[in-house]
Amino acid sequence: MRALVGVLGLLLGLLVGASTVLLNPLAWMRGLPPLSSEIGPFKAYRGEAYRGIDLGAGSLLRAGRQDPEAALNDPALRHVRIAIIVLPAGAGAPAALAVKVSAAAESNSLWRAQLGTNDYWNIYWPGEGSIFATGYSNYWAVTRDGFFAVLGGDFDGARAAGYPVSAPPPPGSAAGVTGAAGRYAGFTGEIRELWYPRAGNPRGTDPDWAVAIKANPPPVTAR
Amino acid sequence: MKRLFAISFLAGLLVVVLATTFWPLPTHLRYRSLITVPTDGGRQEEFVIRWPEDRIRLPGQDRSDLPATAAVGAAVLEDSAGQRASAELFRLRDADDNVIGVATRLAGTGGAIADPGRSASNWLLVIPSRGALFLAQTDVQDATVTEVPTADGPVVFAQAQTAAFWAERQRLLVTANAPATTGSVTTGRVVRGTSEFEGLRGSFTETWALDEVSADGSTQGRILLATFTAAGN
How many Å apart are CA A95 and CA A90, to the nearest integer? Predict the structure, then answer.
């Protein structure tokens, strides 16, 4: 009886402690404001052509086992994800070919509700131009909702339809869009990303990511 | 009993506090940076990619199903006007041959991108422990990869991986030494850097160097990315 009481107390303490850490209010205060849907509409895509980590809590906490088919085994690439993405045409823009590299952020901190990746994009519109973009994605809210969903008996995980994962970069990281080639050379702007964890079912076909980009031409200067 | 429950409850809280404080979150392995500082300032660093072994195969791509000259970890997007963009994924090595990060090469042709017969390419170099470098250049020729339909589905070919491409040379400087007349891409330019590379600007060159031609018509070689950067250039 004494052992049972001890185990129950310990489990309750773990549960209350983990819940308190996960409910850190900083996670709600740290998201980036969305871009205007007229200026930077979201483009949804299915991000399944990737190698490396799966961006789940297990990978970001270094607690899960990686899919051996997808894992990058070089010691310097253990916490990296690399993908080729086709962004569909729409909203006045043609289809684009893109690559996205995500690396677990070394500045992550469980006390600061930061569990994310530094993301790097290069997007190429055939015949038009290209941009580079960089940002920080925080998966804390996804982890938190997944934890409480499992506690509630919903083993499908996170509940929200889409998570705005883009967050202000930690000190030492950078965010923004930089034009590279063609008519976008010199442009600057912002990037936002949405993740739909529920659409990530390997057998599904729904888009599981969306990205929005706003970029402005360089200012005109008088000579 | 109440006292035991309270003590074990506090022990549970303490475990969470300790785990939250000391949990070993991911860090990236860092190799010593191999940077040369020229006498007149700036910093030079050379990166190496070996083909075909440094190409990053995507899930579902079985190398044994493909022709020997095919490229894995690559994709092509072409519009109805024949304007093409291609993407390639690589491991990135330092001058000592350590894999230190990943590199992607996106190249495009046509329209506002490049003159006819040429392409413009972007390199994204990500060294997880150090940051990223964004490079852009006009290519001396069309350096995109191409997609060929086959009975087993589309197959991507890279010129440098075929023996015929090297019939009259052993090396090719891919970076154009004069800017394109179309668009605004220049010869090799370091557009931007992040983290440790933040604030650096400069130039780079891309060179393809042939190492070996195999009997099956495929090749092995190196892509050499030589960067020269300085703060705020």
Answer: 7
Give dist(CA B198, CA B188) in Å, integer: 18
Q: Which residues of A touch B128 (CB under 8 A)?
A: 76-77, 79-80, 103-104
Burial of residue A16 (CB within 10 Å: 0-12, 13-18, 19+) is: middle
CA–CA separation, B201 and B139 (whole Å) = 20
Q: Tell me: the pLDDT tens digits for B163-186?
A: 999 999 999 999 997 655 555 556
**Cα A174 from chain centre:** 15
pTM above 0.90, yes or no: yes
A7/B8 touch (CB, cutoff 8 Å), yes or no: yes
**pLDDT tens digit string along A60-117?**
998 878 888 899 999 999 999 999 999 998 877 789 999 999 999 999 999 999 999 9
- Judge: A182–B108 Cβ closer than 8 Å, yes or no: yes
Question: Is the separation of the CB atoms in B140 and B118 below 8 Å?
Answer: yes
Which chain A residues contact residue B180 at CB under 8 A? none
